Amino acid sequence: MDAFDKRKLVLDQLRWLAVYIGSAFVISILLPFPIDWFVAIPVFLLISWYRRKLFLKKLGIKDKGTRININLTVIKNLFKSFPLNILDSTTSRSGQVKYYCMSCGNEYREIACPKCGSKMKRAG
Question: Is residue 79, in this structure, part of any structural domain at all?
């Protein structure tokens, strides 16, 4: 990405930031307090929706407006990868972080080194 593309990207982000802040300012000036929240949130969502449509149009992707398909097996496998009990000591030691004493180099899992009593440790 050359300097021109970065500059164009930053200017585009600043323009959208100005649109968001400007719409919030106008809504908050024109409407009283509790009502402006109920108007501002849908306005921000509509601006975000419009911005996403423009972005997809730039990329050449058609937005069909279809629902998102949720693959439940992927979600199940994600949660299966987490251990049931994080503090369980019976899990394999290969995935756990090893701590080494900064003074003597002893590997330990307590707060202080059992060999020299130092609390300074590094992860290895």
Answer: no
Q: Are 103 and 117 in contact (CB under 8 A)?
A: no
What is the secondary structure of 55-120 as a DSSP string?
Answer: HHHHHT-----PPPPP-HHHHHHHHHTS-S-TT-TTS-GGGSPPEEETTT--EE-SSS-TTT----
pLDDT in tens, 58-77: 777 666 655 555 566 666 66
Residue 37 belongs to a domain: yes
Determine the structural domain holding residue 53 and report its residue range.
3-59
Q: How many domains does the chain have?
A: 2
DSSP summary character for residue 122: E
The whole model's pTM is what?
0.44
